From TrEMBL:
<dbReference type="InterPro" id="IPR036291">
    <property type="entry name" value="NAD(P)-bd_dom_sf"/>
</dbReference>
<keyword id="KW-0560">Oxidoreductase</keyword>
<protein>
    <recommendedName>
        <fullName>NAD-P-binding protein</fullName>
    </recommendedName>
</protein>
<dbReference type="GO" id="GO:0016491">
    <property type="term" value="F:oxidoreductase activity"/>
</dbReference>
<dbReference type="Pfam" id="PF00106">
    <property type="entry name" value="adh_short"/>
</dbReference>
<dbReference type="InterPro" id="IPR002347">
    <property type="entry name" value="SDR_fam"/>
</dbReference>
Length: 319
């Protein structure tokens, strides 16, 4: 029987490596930061709320993240505005000359349909467009790191099995295709979330093809993942001591919910079987299992259309 993934045993050497985890100040993001820092990496906790991020870093330091075990640094990142996402990436590149792993973890799960100042769905902006801009801006430092001898550079985009519930008929031919409301449908908010996670999967596949088709090819592995259900809410319920063990029967705590992210970011097997994981979609049962996304998630034309529409949008926005 295959042994379960263990972040203490199954990660590559991370001392001297630099990693960014967006949304790293709470939940699975915080647990991801902790695992990677304990393995020796310098991890940038990219977060919108500086006070909460500093508090989270202080807690990690108190738990024993000494300099020999890696360190955690703060990077202010506001994904509600793509221009701010670009600036955050530029600030990072003023601080560091290498980036070994980028984990686009931050995102919103629910909320009413709203539009940003640019006339775009705020959920699509936070879950997809700003991460796209943040990542694109970091491509030079990711590429220079990837071109070093014995490199192991990875990009991990958090998706969700929820993408399989996106209604058919998705297209990317005009800007309004980012603003699908699913008005009148049962659980329209969930549908919008599913749609945003489909974007992450399609973008990851297009990004990998971009790297592979470059001349010369850029040796970066891009993956999208389904982290699984994670309990980030039962502590807010009445009588949390009662509900927490019951909820745990169905879904993971943040510590174990971070395992798929940590696997994608630094598992030895990804380095050893690199071609197998390029552009892959990973599930959490078992951790790191390569899965097939939905038919739309595998549609190369849809991925290309999304890429072209996004780059056209960003050109219009002068980003």
């Amino acid at each position: 029987m295959k042994r379960k993934f263990d972040p203490l045993l199954d990660l590559v050497e991370l001392r001297g490596k630099v990693i960014i985890v967006t949304g790293g100040n709470r939940g699975t993001g915080l647990a991801t930061v902790k695992h990677l820092a304990q393995a020796g990496a310098t991890v940038y906790m990219a977060a919108r709320n500086e006070a909460k991020a500093k508090e989270a870093i202080k807690r990690l330091d108190c738990e024993g993240l000494e300099p020999g075990n890696g360190q955690v640094k703060l990077l202010k990142l506001d994904l509600s505005d793509p221009k701010e996402a670009k600036r955050a990436a530029e600030v990072f590149m003023e601080k560091e000359t290498r980036l070994d792993v980028l984990i686009n973890n931050a995102g919103v799960l629910s909320g009413p349909f709203e539009k940003s100042a640019d006339g775009l769905s705020t959920m699509v902006v936070v879950n997809y467009i700003s991460p796209f801009v943040f990542t694109r801006t970091l491509i030079p430092v990711l590429t220079s790191t990837a071109n070093e001898v014995d490199s192991d550079v990875r990009i991990v985009n958090l998706a969700s099995i929820a993408h399989k519930f996106t209604p058919s008929g998705v297209k990317f031919s005009e800007i309004e295709d980012f603003n699908v409301e699913y008005r009148g449908k049962l659980m329209s908010g969930f549908m919008r979330y599913a749609h945003s996670k489909l974007l992450n999967i399609l973008w990851t596949r297009a990004l990998q093809r971009h790297f592979d088709s470059a001349s010369p090819p850029i040796p970066i592995v891009a993956m999208s993942i389904h982290p699984g259900g994670v309990d980030t809410f039962s502590h807010n319920w009445p009588l949390p001591w009662f509900w927490k063990p019951i909820v745990a029967l169905a879904i993971n705590d943040p510590e174990h919910g971070s395992y798929t992210s940590v696997f994608a970011a630094a598992a030895k097997v990804v380095r050893e079987e690199k071609e197998k994981y390029t552009g892959a979609y990973l599930d959490n049962k078992p951790v790191g299992k390569i899965e097939e996304p939905s038919a739309m998630g595998k549609d190369h034309k849809l991925a290309d259309d999304l890429w072209n529409l996004t780059t056209s949008l960003l050109q219009t926005l002068n980003i």
